[in-house]
Design a protein that fits this description.
By secondary structure, the protein is of the alpha+beta class. It is built from 7 helices and 19 strands. One of its GO terms (cellular component) is cytosol. This is Aminomethyltransferase.
Length: 364
């Protein structure tokens, strides 16, 4: 039996009635009070997530910017100190190694935030492509990450820090500020479609800060939230999940995140393949679907044209807690991607009618 990894907050999960599951080799809370309640809290007040399983890697050196330009799809030269950027690492064929955030922490210093299940693979990929004066430092094991998300997040966090949060724009961060006596990097980012902050702190400080945030946020409806609500929230906002909307066989262009692929910035790994794909036409497209018939579309359920030909599959699907509709994201043949196109989803052996709808399903 394999040993599951645990975050620094694992010792207090039971204090909050957490239900833990195996998530990519980590023992993590899928829910506390319930996915629907936690989802609603983030949409209406605020939720606090333990996402300390995410990976963090510092990249520094005089060649750091050139290295990251070659490694990632977005234009690293556009990032100022105190700013972060969503980006992707691709294989030469255009498939995705991982999606990530790039934080510029200094003149020649960056922090990459990568997906937990990809840490070892990403580090190996990064090592393979080292050139010049570059230092890589994997700080994942000594870093905890708390995500405070929701319309009341700024009000709650302001109770614990004197930093001018109202001046912090989206995808900007304050580095080495004090929050409840703890040194933190605080960025205005998140994975829920709501306003919010992500707080990078030393692992030893995680329990203290978790408790303080829940204590000062209680009057504003702040609740601990698990991976279940995190998934339904990001899904409604059409934020991709690696392994579902993105993978080594799904390109960024197919997944609908072409905005973060700067083909004109110069050479990078995967550029040639992605340029060909853009020039000749994207063969598959990620679309939103809404069920017309009864049934919930789930990951990997086959999708068919109304004539009976399989044209793709569902990548994520659920009953939207906000919309109360059975909806999904599906990667399908681009020729069937027009809005209101009717499709069939195979659910437990039966083909159930659906239609293509606009995304994101939810926008604040």
């Amino acid at each position: 039996m394999r040993m599951l990894k645990r975050t620094p907050l694992f010792p207090i999960y039971n204090d909050y009635d957490a239900r833990v599951i195996d998530f990519g080799g980590w023992e993590l809370p899928v829910q506390f009070a319930g996915i629907q309640k936690e989802h609603a809290a983030v949409r209406e007040q605020a939720g606090l997530f333990d996402v300390s399983h995410m990976g963090e890697v510092n990249v520094s050196g005089s060649d750091a910017v050139n290295y990251l330009q070659k490694l990632t799809t977005n234009d690293v030269t556009k990032i100022q100190i105190g700013q972060c950027q969503y980006s992707l690492m691709c294989y030469p064929d255009g498939g995705v190694v991982d999606d990530l955030l790039v934080y510029r922490t200094g003149e020649e210093a960056y922090m990459l935030v990568i997906n937990a299940s990809n840490i070892d693979k990403d580090l190996e990929w990064m090592q393979q492509h080292l050139e010049g004066d570059i230092q890589l430092d994997n700080i994942s094991d000594t870093t905890a990450l708390l995500a405070l998300q929701g319309p009341k997040a700024a009000h709650i966090l302001s109770k614990l820090t004197s930093a001018p949060l109202n001046e912090l724009k989206v995808f900007r961060f304050f580095n080495q500020i004090e929050v409840a006596g703890v040194n933190a990097l605080v960025s205005r980012t998140g994975y829920t479609g709501e306003d919010g902050f992500e707080l990078y702190i030393a692992s030893d400080d995680a329990i203290h800060l978790w408790k303080k945030l829940l204590e000062v946020g209680d009057a504003d409806g702040l609740v601990p939230a698990g991976l279940g609500a995190r998934d339904t929230l990001r899904f409604e906002a059409k934020l991709p999940l690696y392994g579902q909307e993105l993978s080594k066989t799904i390109s960024p262009l197919e997944a609908g995140v072409s905005f973060f692929v700067k083909l004109d910035k110069g050479d990078f790994i995967g550029r040639e393949a992605l340029s060909v794909q853009k020039r000749t036409g994207i063969p598959r497209k990620l679309v939103g679907i809404e069920m017309i018939g009864r049934g919930i579309p789930r990951c990997h359920y086959p999708v068919y044209s109304t004539e009976g030909a399989q044209i793709g599959e569902v990548t994520t699907g659920t009953q939207s807690p906000t919309l109360k509709k059975n909806v999904g994201l599906a990667l399908i043949d681009s020729s069937f991607s027009a809005l209101d196109t009717e499709l069939d989803v195979e659910i437990r052996g039966s083909k159930i009618r659906a239609k293509v709808v606009a995304t994101p399903f939810y926008k604040k």
